[in-house]
Amino acid sequence: MSLIDTIWDLFDRDAKKYMYTPIDFSHVKDAAYSEEALEGGKDYFRLWLSEMCLAKDREWFKSWYPVVHSIISIRFGTQVVNLPYVAGSLNLSNVNSGNLDKVIRLNHPMTALMPFNGGVVEVTAGILAMQGDDYLNRFIKVMGDFANILIVPQLSAALSVAGPIATGIEELLGASNGDLHLGLHQAYVGKGGGGTNTLKAGYMVALLAEEQELDASMLWVVNDRLRYGTSAEDSEPLMGRTYMLFRIENREERDDFDGLTNISEPFNEAISALMNGEEERAKTLLRAAIGAAITSADLTRADRRRVAQAMKDEFGEYQDMVGGTRGGSVRTRAGRTGEIPDLNKAMQRAMPVEEALALGEPTFEELFERY
After folding, report:
1. Do 244 and 283 lie in a common domain?
2. Residue 147 and residue 86 in contact, taking contact as beta carbons nearer than 8 Å
3. d(CA 184, CA 244)
4. Are residues 22 and 131 in the same domain?
5. Are 116 and 212 in a shared domain?
6. Are 242 and 270 in the same domain?
7. Which of 316, 302, 301, 367 is nearest to 346 (CA)?
8. pTM value?
9. Are 224 and 262 in a shared domain?
């Protein structure tokens, strides 16, 4: 049985009535995100557990331990992958028996920042109540630490461990007399889907309550916390309820290009080699960096061109700046200093995303023309 099958078995076995609702943009105070649907090949996204609250409805941390889990199914590169995540109280700070009746702000990343390549993004998440002793709690932490390996900029390099991590989590879930405390399943599609399950930035909440118990129009998000009232100003923290508040983050551009080491390291080495007068070695390293960029599953279709072209342009400019000097100081040109750039700095001058999409996927011949 796969991890997805194990979780679905828990959903079926412990089926209860849950309340799920996206939080309308107008109900998020000082919202600083766009309501536009994500576009395949253009946008990145990341899933956050913004907040979790546990009601005092059992002996938490005495004989029962909360486990937050998720599995995200997405199209990554040319394949569909399942990305598992699990965390217990020792992974989630401030979750303990003394503050269960308080609102706990976590902002805990459940996935890496990933390119949206179109298709369906399937989210299965929940809180499990697992019965055992403190040894179980510590084992849950170990599995959570392993799951964090997948929350890295260069996700492609970590995918080989996704299967073993999923297997370990599956064994964990089946090793204890536990039950599903609160669960959520939702599948999202990109722009043009026509339904209410459009993948876009925003908040959604899964609440252990029946729909007639709470008025969804009175739910608000203030400072990443769930509140209840007639307005954001008059709202109060939602007390005595178990819930998970999730957030989908959306970006057109990454802010962690240097974390893509299979691209950034040969690029930085290429610049260093160029500055030391090793021009042929520098060109070889640049070709390696460009090749990694235009085949990278960690980049959107737009960014594969943007990153490759930005590195080529930056290298060419430094090549012109160095001129005949060998390891000496670089002349100031176009208002820039002689500081050797990293990939994040190179991307600050990259072409706009829309222009890159219009130009289409780059080819090796096009980008290697000069080198």
Report:
1. no
2. yes
3. 9
4. yes
5. yes
6. no
7. 316
8. 0.86
9. no
Tokens of 167: 């297997």
* Least trusted range by pLDDT, from 37-41, 326-330, 344-348: 326-330
**Do 251 and 112 form a contact (C-beta atoms < 8 A)?**
no
Arithmetic mean of pLDDT, 340-359: 90
91/175 Cα distance (integer angstroms): 19
Radius of gyration of the chain (CA): 24
Q: Residue 33: which pLDDT band, with cuts at 50, 70 and 90?
A: very high
Of 251, 268, 287, which one is at a domain's C-terminal end? 251
More confident residue, 60 or 294: 294
- Taking the C-alpha atoms of residue 196 and residue 189, their distance in angstroms, rounded to an integer, is 9
Residue 325 structural domain: 257-367
The structural domain count of the chain equals 2
Q: What is the mean pLDDT of the chain?
A: 84
State whether the Cα torsion 264-117-162-139 is positive or negative. Answer: positive
Residues 263 and 226 reside in one and the same domain: no
Alpha-carbon span 339 to 151, nearest angstrom: 31
* C-alpha distances in Å from residue 276, one per residue of 258, 303, 318: 22, 29, 12
Q: Which residues on adjacent β-strands are paired with residue 180? A: 128
**Do 199 and 278 sit in the same domain of this protein?**
no
